[in-house]
Amino acid sequence: MIATSHVWLRRSAAPLVVGALPAILFIMLFGVYAGWTIAVSFTDLALLGRKAIEPSFVGFDNYVRLVARDGFLGAVWTTTVFTFFSAIVGQCGIGFLLAVILKGGKKRLRGIVEFSLLFGWLAPDVVAAFMWSALASPDGLLNTVILRPLGFERVHLLNLYAMELVVISNIWKGTAWSYLLFSAALDTVSREVVEAAYVDGANAWQRLRYVLVPLLRPQIATNLLLVTIWTYAFFSLIWALTGGGPGRDTEVLSIYMYKQAFEVGKLGYGSAIAIAMMLIVAGLSVLYVRQGKDALR
Amino acid sequence: MRRLLILGATALTAIGSFASSAIADVTVTYPSGWEELLEPAFRQFESETGEKVVSVVVPKDIDQRLVVDFAGGAASDVVVYDSYRTSEYTESGYLADLTGYVGNWEDWPLYFGSLKEISTISGSVRGIPNYTDVRMLWYNRAIFEQAGIEEPWKPVDWNEVLDTAEKIKAALPEIEYPLYFPVGTKMGEATTMQGFYMALLGADASEGGRNRLRDWNEGVWIGDSPAIRKVLGLYQDIFVERGLSARELYYTPDVWGDMRRAFAEGKIGIMANGSWEYRSVWRAVGTEKTPAEIDAFMAWAPFPGDGSEGAPEFSNISGGWNFGISEQSTQKDAAWKLIETILDGPKYAAWVAKQGRVAVRRDALEAPEYKADAYLSSLSPLLERTTGRDTYPGYSSVSAFIQEATAAILDGQSIDDAVGAYRTSLEDEFGADEVKVIQ
Question: In chain A, which residues have their Cβ closer than 8 Å to the Cβ of B244?
């Protein structure tokens, strides 16, 4: 059962299994919840009413409705836009650039930037939401300190630019992670390689494009993977800041799922959304992991 | 040695029986804002019984919190819930039958019959009403004066409401909410009740459920009707065509607090809202105001119908909050004792008057604090002609679909599309034979 050449281990498989029991149980717990969600997604289980007590099997109805009804596909698009701009372009891009720029920078400057980045990262999501809401309100800082002195009319940022606002606030919130990861990764690149490129006449852009990026490709892929996964399922900041509105402007998948499961009360349909989200993220992960592997070859 | 064992066993048994005779803490889940009524009652209950009360105060979205607690088997012994959910909670087996308790309770005959009916499902009492409310259009008197609008304002139809808002917009362009009208999903039930349903009731005559979401005679939900289309048209007028309201207040992190502060700060001209706002606005801002000061600041008008033939002149709809005991509770007697302690006559009367809430029992109406309150007395005409929502099992899903339809209008969808999606959602949920269309 246990493949090992060690005689003692081979003879005492039983105690090993017993020793591993907590871990097995722990893993089973994940399996049970995932299995339960999959099972529920094929039923019309509801939070309230008759269907809460006697749910019935509905086959693929919930999955068909994901495509056939308004809501899900729109939320997929909103989530994709949100993830692309806030996580991939924003957090990863800005995090990477800051890490590169500050690598050789002055220690004090680096300290100040790191402190400000970390502040965003450490602020609880709901606090961040209230802060950004206050910043963006018609009487808020953005209007009174920046836009109006520049001669612009007072702008209802949350009315007109809700998506942009949640994207920016999420960049503010999450860039620290990417920055820290990339600056640690940059420390592993030996000076000689970069200097050799410099001696060969590569300019700053070429050094970045042809030396640093290829060298850091595994780390970039890993970071993209992580950031995409958690941004795709991100909930709290957007929920508190806009609740998915105005209208459905910022209704990402996690909010759509929450509304369907807990406001409308359709647990079955909500579970189907959860499974669909999992599949989308799994697909993206496969893509990233392949990219990372290619880089290592 | 044997003696020692016996002694030990006896001691263990004693500890065991002691532990099982003591009941666990009595748990309560209630919405924030009720502390003044509940906390003193908890202390009194604790000193009288020696039991401890553990409370969970929910700042917002208590409906969602309760339903998840119920469904997950983690509900408190005593729950304070929005009364419209009584039928759904009962159908799901979440609420305990209180018929036996109220039968022996001397205060029960003091409660008004109509409210008892809402809380009685198939002959068994499931909730004890705590207060009720009415709905109307509030307006800021200073804004009206500056815009040159005559008072007292008594609009006769929707057009007059929209035109008044238009006047405010023209005279005072800095007012971003000439007409605050609950919309979208973040306001939850408030969108359905203070906004959509108030308009719906006045949009058509009442035969065959023409001005409702459910036809009670046929026992079906209404997936499409002229009245539903008119109300969505009203939303379109307010938010899209005539721009009579900005959107931010319906989506901020603190939608209730921000709405109240905006009203108090004079940023809202007219506001579709409820009777509790007379006091709630000032509680949210943190200023104590005398009734005279409040009356100088704000006044209300009944919500008019749209003026079409047979439609009511004005509409009103009442809701309210109930105490209930969860079916899962293992100490229902103690839970009931706690509810009785909370609803002690004089204390309840003082609280409900101070909150500016509409009392639900006769002795409270007769209490001096309540009688002296001119505002609460002024609500009588609305209360006399009030109605309720279509609180049939499934209503909360229907309500959520309505909120989605109003959000779709904000998104710029056509009325046809929004109604179409609403009807499809109903058919998915209840089956096509339980949904009807009124031409």
Answer: none
